[in-house]
Amino acid sequence: MIAAKKPAQPKSLIRRPEVDEDVRKSRWRLILGDDSGASGFGLSAENSRRALLLDYLYRRELGPRRNIRAKNKKGGSEASELTVPEWINGVHELFPKRTIERLEKDAIDRYQIEEIVTRPEILNRATPNLTLLKAVLRTKHLMNQEVLHAAKRIVEEVVRELMEKLAREIQTPFLGALNRKRRSALKIAKNFDAAQTIRRNLKHWDPESQKLIVQNPIFFTRIRRHAEKWRLIIVVDQSGSMLENVIHAAVSASIFHKLNQLKSNLVAFDTQVVDLSESVSDPVETLLNVQLGGGTDIANALEYASKLVDDPNRTIVVLITDFFEGGPVEHLFAMAKGLVEQGTHVLGLAALDGQAEPHFDREIAQRLANLGVHIGAMTPGELAQWVAEKIR
Question: Where do the VWFA domain residues begin and end (predicted)?
C-alpha cells in the first residue's frame, strides 16, 4: 500500500540533542591531544585509554613542521611502550567502526606503519577495507605463509564487498531495454510501472486512512539482447601508483567474464606483461598474483594485447594507465594507431575506481586521442555503460 507523505518538519523546529559540557570538553581534549594546552581537563579512565591510543598514532606529527608544542612537557614513554597489536586491540575495543577505519587508514597511508600487515595476530584483528587491502598487496612479498594466509582473509572480504557493490552497476547495461508495450508476471522492483499501478488501483483508495491499497501491481517486461560475443581485453598498469585501479580492474574483469555477451581477457603490465586471463574468474587469485612496482612500458602491453585480437571489429581494448610511458613514445603511438586502423575499439582510461579522479600525462593522452583512441576516466559502472553501447 502507498501511504500519503507527511509534510516535512521545518528545519527551524528540529532541535539537536544537547551535549553535556563535560562530554564536549572530553571530545575536544581527545581531538586536540596532550600538547594542546587542554591537558588540565581531567579524563575518565576510558577516555584516558582513548587518548593514549590516539597519542600513539598522531604523536608522529610532532616535529619541525608542526606548530603545536607541548608546554612544560615532562619526559615519559607511556605511549611508546604500546605495541601494534595492543594498539589494534585497544582501538577495536574503544572506538566506533567509522573511527576504527579512519585510524587504520591513517596508520597505513599517513604514517606507513607497515607492521600492521606483516603479523598474523594483527591482521586477524584488522577491519577489512580498501586501505588495508592496498597495504596487504604492497607488502605480500614480505609475508611468510602464516601471515599470507591471514592476509588472504582481508583480500577475500574486500573483494566480496566490491563484487556486491559493482555487480549490479556493471551487469545492468547488458540486461536489455524495457519494453513498455508488454507486461510481465515477473515481479522485479526495477521493472515496476508506478504510473500504471496507481492508475489501475485508484478504485481501492481509502479516504479515511488516506492510503492507496495496491491489489494489482504492474511490471514491465524486458527485451533480451542477443548478439555474438565480443572480446573485451582489459590491460592494466600495475605500477605502484595505479594500485586502486588494479583492484577495480580485477573485480570488474571478473564480473564482465560472467556476462554471456563477452569473452574477457585481463593483462597486467609494468616493463613486463603478465596474462592473468586464466584466473580472471577469481579476482582474489588475480590480485595475489599481481606484482606491483617497476617501470612502465605501455607499448609492450598494447603489442601483447594486439595478439589476442581475433576479430578487430568485435574487440574492445581497455587500457588503464596514467600514460607516463617509460619506453619509446613513438612505439606506443604506432601500436595504438595500428589497433585503431584495423577496427579495434581502444579506450584509454586514466582512472578506473570509485571516484574516477585521474592523474595522467595529458600530452601523451591527447596524442593518443588524436589517433582515434577514446580517452577518459570512469567508474566501473560507467565503463560497463560504454562497453554496452559499443556492442549493441
Answer: 229-388
Query: What does R_g of the chain's alpha carbons equal in angstroms?
Result: 27
**Over the stretch 75-115, which tens digit does the pLDDT of each residue have?**
343 444 677 778 887 888 888 888 888 888 888 888 878 77
C-alpha cell at 305: 594485447
CA-based end-to-end distance of the chain:
38
Residue 57, pLDDT > 80, answer yes
Kindly state whether residues 241 and 380 are assigned to the same domain: yes
Q: Please indicate, yes or no, whether residues 256 and 346 belong to a single structural domain of this protein.
A: yes
- Return the CATH number at 241: 3.40.50.410
Q: State mean pLDDT over 40-49.
A: 75
**Cα separations (Å) of 195 from 3, 85, 200, 390?**
16, 57, 9, 32
| Model pTM score | 0.69
Within a 10 A sphere around the Cβ of 328, how many other Cβ atoms?
Answer: 11
- Give the domain-ending residue among 165, 192, 223: 223
Name the residue type at position 34: D
Say what percent of the chain tops pLDDT 90: 40
Grid-cell match 581527545, residue found: 30
Q: Do 37 and 71 meet the contact criterion of CB atoms below 8 Å apart?
A: yes
State pLDDT tens for residues 151-203: 999 999 999 999 999 998 998 888 765 445 555 445 566 667 788 888 777 87
Q: Name the region of 326 (left: φ>0; alpha: ψ -120 to 50; beta: rest).
A: alpha
Cα distances from 250 to residues 236, 247, 256, 282, 330, in angstroms, run 9, 5, 10, 8, 29
Question: How far apart are the C-alpha atoms of 367 and 46, rounded to whole Å?
Answer: 60
Q: For residues 23 and 31, give the distance between their C-alpha atoms in angstroms, rounded to a whole number.
A: 12
**In a shared domain, residues 276 and 368:** yes
Q: Which of these three, 223, 240, 260, is where a domain ends?
A: 223
Q: Are residues 285 and 308 in the same domain?
A: yes
pLDDT average, residue stretch 37-42: 53
CB of 297 closer than 8 Å to CB of 332: no
Given the DSSP bridges, would you call strands 220-223 and 177-183 parallel, antiparallel or unpaired?
antiparallel
* Count helices and strands in the chain by DSSP H and E runs: 14, 11
Cell numbers for 366, please give them.
591527447
- The parent domain of residue 248 ranges over 230-391
Question: How confident is the model over 348-368, as pLDDT tens digits?
Answer: 999 887 777 788 999 999 999
- Asked whether residue 61 is domain-assigned, the answer is yes
